[in-house]
Please model this.
Amino acid sequence: QVQLAESGGGLVQAGGSLRLSCVGSRETFSRYAMGWFRQAPGKERRFVAAVNWGGSLTEYAESVKGRFTISRDNPKNTVTLQMSNLKPEDTAVYYCAAADPDNTLQLFTAIYDYPYWGQGTQVTVSS
Model:
């Protein structure tokens, strides 16, 4: 079982940028497909971005395409979410998650595919 810890959240003005990081506890981190989700107050947790084992494949929610970039550094057991041109509607708690893929090309966008979750980090975007 992998443990995940997010960092990098905070308060930023609309149009600004933030970089979220997620560090995994296990040396087998590179074998997990990784994802970022977010949950705004009173709303369901929703998919933001995902990346496969080696970082060669990514997928994004429509609402963040062109503004957010997911990447991973496997030797450092880290996955990063670079967020730019932030909007007030991006305000949420952001969660890092890990899934067990069947092959190196697989990634996931559904919450139920991810058995491992971090505690979350708050991102607040002011208008």
About this structure: The first strand starts at residue 4 and ends at 7. The chain has no helices and eleven strands. The mean pLDDT is 96. The two ends are 40 Å apart (CA to CA).
